[in-house]
Amino acid sequence: MLLGYSPKARKNREWLALLALKLVAYVALIILALMIFYIVFHGFKAINFDFLTKFPSDFMRKGGILPAILGTLYLAAGSMVVSLPLGFGAAIYLTDYAKPGPLVSIIRLGVANLAAVPSVVFGLFGLALFVVGFGFGRSLLSGCLTLGLLTLPTVTAAAEEALRQTPQSFREAALALGANRWQAIRQVVLPAALPGMLTGAILALGRAAGETAPIILTAAAAFSPALPDSLFNEVMSLPTHIFNMATNGAFIEQTRVRQFGTALVLMALVLGLSLVAIVIRAKLIRRRKW
Amino acid sequence: MVKPPAISARSVSFYYGEFQALRDINLEIAKDEITALIGPSGCGKSTFLKLLNRMNDFVPGARLSGEIIIGGVNVYGPQADPVEIRRKVGMVFQKPNPFPKSIYDNICYGPRLVGVKKKSALDEVVEKALKAAALWDDVKDKLNKSAFELSGGQQQRVCIARALALEPDILLMDEPTSALDPIATAKVEEWIKQSKLSIVIVTHNMQQAARISHGTAFFYMGELIEFAPTLTLFTSPKESRTENYITGRFG
Questions:
Q1: Domain assignment of residue A73, yes or no
Q2: Average of per-residue pLDDT values in chain B
Q3: Exposed, middle or buried by CB within 10 Å (0-12, 13-18, 19+), for A231?
Q4: Rounded mean pLDDT of B59-68?
Q5: pLDDT interval class at B174 (50, 70, 90)
Q6: Could you tell me if B121 lies within 8 Å of chain A, comparing CB atoms?
Q7: What is the pLDDT of residues A53-89, one digit of tens each?
Q8: If pLDDT is split at 50, 70 and 90, which confidence band does B90 have?
Q9: Is residue A163 a contact partner of residue A189, using CB atoms and an 8 Å limit?
Q10: Number of CB pairs < 8 Å for A and B?
Q11: What CATH number did the domain enclosing A109 receive?
Q12: DSSP annotation string for A22-83
């Protein structure tokens, strides 16, 4: 027997290491669960039919958050109108057309760096370019454009990944049958890559719905008496509504439950979107056989 | 009377950037016959095959000198249209690569590209192509099923049928059985032997070349070493390098 070797000590060490790893993994889960529980616990009292379907009134102490819900949906959807064509287009160019070289590397680097830019910087950029520069004012349009740029790197990176995972052999087969490159991409590559591209888009949609700083700077109204009927209207949104009630409202304490209620609605919205993305991905993996 | 060749390569040299992959290849490939290209890995046989339907066009830094004449036209001439060439010169790849679509839509892909839209015409094309690829009886009841649900050998025959649907003059096959089991291989070989097409097949497998081809070309280090009727090449090769390769001394 080896000197000082004890099977028991080895087993104990292994058990300890495993325990430590398990704990670390569970901590992440526990924090998420606590956060959800905390928001649901404090917020569910605010949720009722009126809360979801009425305008706020009496300095946010009464009524509901309908304009904020709709505003967030408009902003999120509008941002996709901006970022999907740009992001998908850029991804197709980068994977299928661009010749590898310094230019492509720089574009890729640019996209990756864009993803790391803090959202408030996007907000300031949107404020300078869209709100002031183009004269769109603080509006739904400015907000959508700003959020569109903000989500562009996510959309592009996910689309690129999905396109790259589509086998080269699909492209070869189509070309060998007399397709030109665009036909090969449109008829064979895109249909195969689309679920993956959409998964990325939905995650970006969730991100756009939850952003606060860029909206405050480019689009958000603290209160609007009517739903927006034009792209040039200011809009309310869920995250900025929470922010306003919690920091500079007239009755911060008395709206506490409504703050949590709004947070709960926002969280449900974002989790719902992520869930859709997960379902799509699961379906895709089950169907995919290449 | 001698038939005009299906393909003539004249002084073809090909470069990937600085690397010369093919050196001065001169080769006449007979019409309606099966021609095998053999040689060790990296000898240029697959590169040569892909030149014939301009599939190397997409390789960055690729450059060619010389002429390849198919149907009286230099496929690298200024008038040549690569898309038209690929419609006349079909290709089957090393790994079965059906599209993630139904069997029916796989076969229709080429004909639809050239504008065939009528259901009855497409139905006819599908049946004819699948019969030609000896797959009709296996799949006639599940044409709308995904091609991925078929076995590897059946998938490869879907790919053959897909190429045949365009009624090509020439079919190029790049090691078409290397990803298949022996039974599937036998079926594909059987199909090749009975087809009346001009076929150029790249193969790693010398027995396969001997079994199915009329003529065999031996490539080595980017050069065409010897091209002869298959029986002659395998029984009395002129070149010592050919003999060394076919007797298994290298490669």
A1: yes
A2: 92
A3: middle
A4: 91
A5: very high
A6: no
A7: 988 888 778 888 999 999 999 999 999 999 999 999 9
A8: very high
A9: yes
A10: 65
A11: 1.10.3720.10
A12: HHHHHHHHHHHHHHHHHHHHHHGGG-SHHHHHS-EETTTTEE--HHHHHHHHHHHHHHHHHH
- Provide the strand spans (E) within chain A: 56-57, 62-63
Closest-CA residue to B50 (of B19, B98, B16): B16
Spell out the residues 6+ positions from residue B200 whose beta carbon is closer than 8 angstroms to its own. B7, B29, B35, B37, B49, B52, B170, B171, B172, B173
Which of A173, A178, A289 is closest, CB to CB, to B83? A178
Cα A32 to Cα A274: distance, rounded to the nearest angstrom:
15
Reading the block at residue B105, the tokens are 């839509």
Instruction: Kindly state the tokens that stand for B184.
Output: 């599937």
Phi, psi dihedral angles at A63 (to 5 degrees) = 75, -155
Please report the pLDDT score of residue A290 as a whole number.
60
Q: Euclidean distance between the first and final Cα of chain A, in Å?
A: 52
Q: Which of A170, A183, A192 sits opposite B113 (nearest CB)?
A: A183
The sign of the CA dihedral B124, B129, B134, B138 is negative
Q: How far apart are CA B197 and CA B32, in angstroms?
A: 5
Mean pLDDT of A119-133: 96
Is pLDDT at B86 greater than 80 in this prediction?
Answer: yes
Short-list A57, A46, A73, CA closest to A261:
A46
Chain-chain contact of B93 with A183 (C-beta, under 8 angstroms)? no
Q: Tell me whether residue A141 is in a domain.
A: yes
- The pLDDT value recorded for residue A288 is 66
In the structure, what pLDDT confidence band is assigned to residue A148 with cuts at 50, 70 and 90?
A: very high
Domains of chain B by start residue, with CATH: 7-246 (3.40.50.300)
**Which range of residues forms the domain containing residue A142?**
68-237
Instruction: Report CB contact under 8 Å: B60, A167.
Output: no
> Domain total for chain A?
1
Residue A72 counted as domain residue: yes
Most A CBs within 10 Å, among B85, B92, B113, to test the A interface: B113
Q: What's the 3-state SS for B109-130?
A: HHHHHCCCCCHHHHHHHHHHHH
Which chain B residues are Cβ-neighbours of A99 within 8 angstroms?
60
Q: Is residue A110 part of a domain?
A: yes
Q: CA of A193, closest CA in chain B: separation in Å?
A: 11
3-state secondary structure of B146: strand
pLDDT (tens digit per residue) in A250-288: 788 888 999 999 999 999 999 888 888 888 878 877 766
Integer Cα distance of A74 and A237 in angstroms:
9
* pLDDT tops 60 at residue B1: no
Of the pLDDT bands very low, low, confident and very high (cuts 50, 70, 90), residue A3 is low
pLDDT digits (tens, 9 = 90+) for B104-162: 999 999 999 999 999 999 999 999 999 988 899 999 999 999 999 999 999 999 999 99
Residue A95 in 3-state DSSP?
helix
Whether A246 contacts A259, CB under 8 Å:
yes
